[in-house]
Specification:
By secondary structure, the protein is of the alpha+beta class. It folds into 3 domains: 160 residues, no CATH class; 94 residues, Arc Repressor Mutant, subunit A (Orthogonal Bundle); 29 residues, no CATH class. The chain is built from 10 helices and 13 strands. The strands form 5 sheets. The chain has a 3-stranded antiparallel β-sheet, covered by helices on one side. The chain has a 3-stranded antiparallel β-sheet with strand order 3-5-4. Helix 5 crosses helix 10.
């Protein structure tokens, strides 16, 4: 995980209390590894086992795969293949008389996903895949908050009260971007966003198409300076901005930025680069 996320604590995560009884502690590093290695279903299966066997021990290993296959709602062959993958990845450790499920590191103890009382592989996988998207949303919220704070220049930095914003933030994330991050097709990403909405993880707000100008014979793929998805229809060029996603399980509540907090953030070289980028962007806008 990016170490700069230590300062992403600028974005306060508030959990919906109604989901706490069905929380599963996860390791975000495992999620990233599963996305890279294309075994997210197997990882969802692992966390289903963690959710079911709270002490992380599976006893009575004489015929465990039949019992586990029934629990997961998959065939014996699928359960066997997934368990083999998890054993090779070191997530299931065979012991004498039982199988042990790898413990979640204490450094990741605060990371949770929220599921129903009787979750399915599909629901757990969708919640796991939301983890990197949630982290990107936090960073986007932090950047937006810093931009608001820096937009008035040096005098604005001295004003303690003017930027004490405390509100929820809904990031803008397109299906294409989500597909790229999660290394899947756009069709799969679109289906996943619908699943997030169905599970109540997010509420997606889709923008309306906006007419830009008449563009007969124009190739929208080679236009620069116009953000958003572009397409032509009946001789007109249209664009659609990225959808906005309101996080429901863990709302992104922006904590106020004070001068002291800003100075502390400036000491981190990674965030210093972000601050410099924002300042340069503000200067470019002033020139234009």
């Amino acid at each position: 995980m990016d170490k700069s996320t230590a300062y992403i604590s600028q974005i306060q995560i508030n959990s919906n209390k109604s989901f706490k009884e069905s929380a599963i502690r996860i390791n975000p590093d495992l999620v990233e590894a599963a996305i890279d290695g294309d075994y997210t279903k197997e990882l969802a299966f692992f966390y289903l086992l963690k959710f079911t066997y709270r002490n992380s021990h599976i006893y009575d290993v004489r015929q465990p795969k039949q019992r586990i296959a029934a629990l997961a709602g998959v065939s014996f062959t699928t359960a066997s293949r997934w368990m083999t993958t998890l054993i090779l990845r070191g997530l299931i450790i065979p012991r004498k008389g039982y199988w042990e499920l790898e413990a979640t590191p204490r450094t990741s103890i605060r990371h949770k996903i929220y599921v129903n009382e009787k979750p399915t592989i599909k629901e757990i996988r969708a919640a796991l895949l939301f983890t990197p998207i949630e982290a990107i949303g936090r960073k986007q919220a932090l950047k937006d908050n810093l931009t608001q704070y820096l937009s008035d220049g040096t005098e604005g930095l001295k004003d303690y009260g003017k930027y004490l914003r405390k509100e929820t933030f809904a990031p803008w994330l397109s299906v294409r971007f989500i597909a790229k991050v999660l290394k899947m097709s756009q069709y799969s990403a679109c289906y996943l966003v619908k699943e997030w909405n169905r599970q109540g993880i997010v509420k997606t707000i889709k923008p309306e198409s906006e007419f830009m100008f008449t563009a007969n014979g124009c190739d929208p793929n080679h236009l620069e300076g116009f953000p958003g998805h572009k397409y032509t229809q009946e001789g007109g060029l249209y664009k659609v901005e990225a959808s906005q996603h309101e996080f429901l399980h863990n709302p992104l509540v922006i904590k106020p930025i004070t001068l002291e907090r800003y100075k502390n953030m400036s000491k981190d070289f990674r965030l210093r680069a972000l601050i410099d980028e924002i300042n340069q962007s503000i200067k470019n806008e002033e020139v234009i």
